[in-house]
Prior knowledge:
Layout: H1 12-15, H2 22-34, H3 42-48, H4 53-73, E1 79-91, H5 107-112, H6 121-133, E2 138-143, H7 152-161, H8 166-181, E3 184-188, H9 194-200, E4 206-208, H10 217-220, H11 234-246, E5 251-257, H12 263-280, E6 283-290, H13 307-321, E7 327-328, H14 339-344, E8 349-353, H15 370-379, E9 383-387, H16 392-399, H17 410-414, H18 460-471, H19 478-484, H20 489-507, E10 511-514, E11 516-520, H21 527-539, E12 544-548, H22 558-570, E13 575-578, H23 581-591, H24 595-605, E14 609-610, H25 620-627, H26 634-646, E15 650-657, H27 663-680, E16 683-690, H28 708-721, H29 733-745, E17 751-754, H30 775-783, E18 789-791
Parallel strand pairs: 1-2, 1-8, 1-9, 2-3, 3-4, 4-5, 5-6, 6-7, 10-17, 10-18, 11-12, 12-13, 14-15, 15-16
Helix pairs in contact: 2-3, 2-4, 4-13, 6-8, 11-12, 12-13, 18-20, 19-27, 20-28, 21-22, 23-24, 23-26, 26-27
Amino acid sequence: MTVPLTLRMPSRAADQPQAPDRPVLDAALDRLEDGGGSTPDRADAEVLLHARGADLDRLLAVASTMRDTGLAEAGRPGVITYSRKVFVPLTHLCQDRCHYCIFVQSPGKLAKAGISPYMEADAVLEVARQGAELGCKEALLTLGDRPENRWPVARQWLDSHGYASTLEYVGHMAQLILDETGLLPHLNPGVMSWAEMQRLKPVGPSMGMMLETTSSRLWTEKGEAHFGSPDKDPALRLRVIDDAGRSRIPFTTGVLLGIGENYAERVDSILALRDAHARHGHLQEVIVQNFRAKSATAMMGAEDLETQEYAAAVAVTRVLLGPGLRVQAPPNLTDAAELQLLVRAGIDDWGGVSPLTPDHVNPERPWPQIEDLARLTGEGGYTLRERLTAHPHYLREARDGADWLDDRLRPRVLALADDYGLARQDALLGTFPASSPLSAGYSPLSGTKKGEYPALNGAGRLGRLIGDVAGDPVGVDDAGWVELLGARGSDLEELAALADQVRRARVGDAVTYAVNRNIDASRGLSPEQVEELAKEAVALGATEVCAQGVPPTSAGADGYLDLARAVKRGGPGLHLHAFRPAELADGAARAGLSLPDWLTTLREAGVDTVPGTGARILDDRIRDLLTGGTDIPAERWVELVTAAHTAGLRSTATIVYGHVETARDQVRHLRTLARVQDETGGFTELIPMPWLASESPVPVAGARAATLGESRALHAVARLMLDGRIDHVQAAWTKLGMRGAQRMLAGGADDLGGVLLDGVLDPDAGPEQGRELTVADVTRLAAELGRPVRQRTTTYEQVG
């Protein structure tokens, strides 16, 4: 590793603001103590970081009380947790150059020590088996970030072993550990894309990546700790954390303190994590890690973070995050005599502790014996309990149908958990049959072979009703469809199997997809920018550009027309799928034209079809709840989409479900779509989309996330209700995730929609940037179902 001679060592005396005046600190502490458990504002949090001595005691008392409140609310009063694990360092190579890191090595150093660029599979299994024998239940896969991007020897090793990337190797090793030892992998491979996390979710009950800091200064300025490290861009890391939330992955993250950040940046980092958790609810723990200088690193002369400063930072983290989040401090980075200070500061988790392997990131700091950690925890008045790699809260919700765990992985994990979600002390790891997407011959329908489905047995009320649907779906009334939407267990399997049979008879076995890219019209891109994006889309193989959003008011009606014309100039053969019903109304009003005349103008400008989004649930009361009263009425949506069809602009149809609506509301919505289709024939497909709180324009009281079972039932019922009217049912992979979309394809859906190319000119141009599906992903998902794939156009003609 090259050590820059100009490296500036972090100095708390030089970089931090002076301690606040006595009255300022007293006032902040008074407000904290009088707040009744409320969180401090940003300014007070920064002041509280300066607490020392008696002031620190006051801060710790509030943090400790808040932690105790959270433990009681979580149903585990007085319990501090840890995970018994082994550390598996898959590779010490990395593309980053963090100036404090001793874990990362150069290829030359590894070769001199006789170490392979990557840990071989036999060595991985040996460590995992030894850990299992010592009672471990977790294997932490830790490694450098995408070393093949920097080191040719890494690329050569991957090629010679048949892996396309380090992350693919991570997935295979995780699967190997699962199948051969029963240990649960916690994946910590650095920066991942949304799609990469989706691919790893079947073999990772939890994942993690430290945010470390939001300070871009430490990344952009020469001589700072993260300079020269491409994956330490705070914006990139925050995107990863958000994508983990979108993927419904129990995620571990945290901050690294003492690497040159100032107090304001510390507060900003914690608040950024709090905001991410508020959006997605996925941060199972926030680690507050203190810097420890390592020999032979560029920062070996920097001072370790002082203990009271560290304790104050842990306590401020607790009071900012509140009682509901878990706060972790690594027990080996603080002297044993001072661990009680961290307990008082509000931690409720010690993280992973290994009876076998060292902390490879901090090898100079040995793990405490678990018995000693239990004793020290007990001396603070708390009980130490073992947890699994996914925290109890997520396991309890997974038992109730929430999709925090891949459904193929769920039985393995829950078999090791007690009723509360902590580790069962009597659990036997054992081995499990290979059953993941990485295994040949896998079938997503439990207990069936590819191409075979459970026979309709007709048992029970729902079984007989499903038989009625098979015989005459038209004869089933709304009450019957409402009942079918509640199908679960074996009834749901029969319903999904019937929907799949109907899908096969109607459109065949091919899983279809389109190659497209999105453009957010509300960003106000110039026509020249849009034209270049269209050219890039064509070069990447796209057949469609999808444009949504209201152009800036200043652009007038031309905002719509200029975008359409620019797309056609950039890609004359591109299909333009643009402007939702509400946007059609807005454009007509701007232009001062009747709706039919405006639709004709849009067609002449280059619009080919329109997205039928914004349908939500076609009930005005529900629409008002979902949008805070800003949505167009349901009748107006129907009027607009009908007018588009009449003008020759076909559209998609949508339903957004899983919030405050009832099954009866869903059936009424589908009936309305059927009526419009009978009148116009203009819908190309139905896209059911689960409602996501993180993407809602307003908070929705009483809303709940749809379970996988609810999604499967709705897709199956939609296929059966609309058979003969709307031929295609799309699995919305950006909302459902890859596995969720695959389950829908096994129960009535036939299409995956567009792959949403980001490109490189402006990857943020689309509203779903960062979520891109590859053709290889489509092919894999279909192959696991035993089905072929076919690229289609927007209107379902075959491409090529």
